[in-house]
Amino acid sequence: MLSDSTRKSASHYAIGNKNPNLPFxxxxxxxxxxxxxxxxPKDENNMISGTIEEETLATLKTIARVIAHEGATLSDVVRIxxxxxxxxxxxxxxxxxxxxxxxxxxxxxxVEAKAVINTKIEMDAIVYKPLPASx
Length: 135
Fold this sequence. Notes:
It is a single chain. It contains two helices and seven strands, in the order E-E-E-E-H-E-H-E-E. By secondary structure, it is an alpha+beta fold. The protein has one domain (4-128): CATH 3.30.1330.40. The chain has a seven-stranded mixed sheet, covered by helices on one side. It is globular and about 50 Å long. The chain starts with 6 loop residues before the first strand and ends in a 7-residue tail after the last strand. Residues 1-5 have low confidence and may be disordered.
C-alpha cells in the first residue's frame, strides 16, 4: 500500500516502489491514465544486458510488471516512446517490439539517445486503464 505522501487523491498517486536515489516513481496514476517513467531491461532484481531483441522484450516485460499493480496489461498501453542507443538497431528492435507488444493499439515514437545507464534501450509509456466505478 502507498503512504499518504505518495497519494495526492484517490485518482492521483504513485505506483510501485520509488528508488530512494531517484526523484521519481516508476509510474503515476492520474485519473484513468497511468504514466510510466522510463524503464530499462531488467528482471525483478538485475539489469539484463543482451541483444537489442532481448533488451526490447525485457523492457516491455518491465513495463508490464509496473502497470500490473493497477490491473493493466500491455494491451492497455496507448503510447510508447523508445530511446534507442543506436538507430542501426531499429529493424531488429522493431521486430522484437511487434512480438512483445501483442495486439496493443498504440502510438509510438522512437528516437536515438545516449543511455544514462549501460543499456541499448529505454521506454516510457502512457496507459489508459479506467479507474473502477465508485459504488
